[in-house]
Amino acid sequence: MLISLEDNQYSPVAWSDKWGCENCPEEVRKTLLRFDDVSLEQLQSESFSGGRFLVFPSGNAKADLGDKDYIFSLTEKESDKPGFKTSNVMGFFSLDEDVRVKISSRFDNSGKDFFLHYMLQKVCNVAYTPRTESGEDAFYDFLYQLFPYYLNEALAQGIYRAYVTREYNDANVRGPIDVARHIKYNIPFNGKIAYHTREYTTDNVITQLIRHTIEYIRSLQYGKIVLENGSKDLRDNIMAVEMATPTYSRNDRLNIIRRNARPVTHPYYTAYEPLRKLCLAILMNQKLSYGDDSDNMIAGILFDGASLWEEYLNCVLNEGLKVDLKHPNNRTHEGAQYLFKNDDSQNRRWVFPDFMIGCDKAKGQVDSAKAIIDAKYKPLGGEIGRDDSFQMLAYLFRFKSKQGFLIHPVKKDEGTQEPKTLTLYNDDTVKLTVVPFVVPDITDSFDAFQGKMQEQEEKVSAKICDVLKLS
Fold this sequence. Notes:
- By secondary structure, the protein is an alpha+beta fold.
- It is 36% helix and 23% strand.
- The chain has three domains: 2-158 and 204-306, no CATH class; 162-201, no CATH class; 322-468, no CATH class.
- The chain has a six-stranded mixed beta sheet. It has a five-stranded mixed beta sheet with strand order 1-7-6-10-3. A three-stranded antiparallel beta sheet has the order 2-5-4, with no helix packed on it.
């Protein structure tokens, strides 16, 4: 059975009305309760009676996720009419062999996930037209979109190297002699000796798995678009994998899959483990599922909408503003800024403004910035909330900024469609501009949707340039 939800929504659902099943409600309720209020941070570190979850963007820090980034929360848990309350999380996942959940973007009215596809294409620098039909298979195609991103992340740590046992039969003995093989192949003596040796090489089961995945995607109808229409870094990384695997043979695919059953635990090559799981899911062409071999299955693909929206705006603003844009990352703690000097607290009260323009740096920290930009994916209901207002004021005060921007997505028929500027009560020079990003409601053509999104990107960038008087 499939439970279909939207992010940041409350959905009252009756068991019998939804599924028409007399015997399954109690079992379904028990299954759902296991995932009630489970956070993304937990899913990345644990296995819930089944396969692992793939979360994008990866590297979510516990401090960033907080208590609100759960998959869903159940209300009225003891009644036969529970409600589902969702957060910023989108995705498709299995709870057990019988219960599957799909959480779409609240901006998706057709089940085709155009908005999610578009943001991923922008962030991952991959472009292809998604399927026109909806359903589990269409959502599963996100795996192919994510492959270039995870490949680049892994190879940023270098080509994976590991010790591999090689067998040789030649005159250059470099290891222990294999007596049985030597008798089999070299009697009567022909000048060769059979032996084996351990080599530290890039041609190992992990790089072979990546190579097989590349070749498999290449064989698909849209594989060339996924692999060759990306960035130069992607093409260079694909070439590096090809050069690192001279012994590649298409006939070895099943053997390579079997030999990659164990997770990557190397303390340096940390980015290779999510890539390994992704490659196995693609090559095995499996549905999202649970099973005895659950550690090698992907039970769900989940997208942190807040982080994805932030990374999407990072691409948009870098292209549209063409200024020095500093982007601290609260998921990885990269670019952390301190509130106080001589602070002995454990986290030193870090702050992570999403974007800063015109930074004046002092001793590795940003002393001041011309403007602060904050990205909000959650619904604002037409008004900026109290907590968000205080957060922006803290940023403006800390970085001596006179102008702040808050960019959030809205539906075409939802709330205020035009930017609104708020002025600080006792200082007319300090302003906060709330900029709605109107997501188009086009459902018949991805190309048309893409065109309207590009128009909105230009409009948002133009507004910021106009306020800051950027050329």
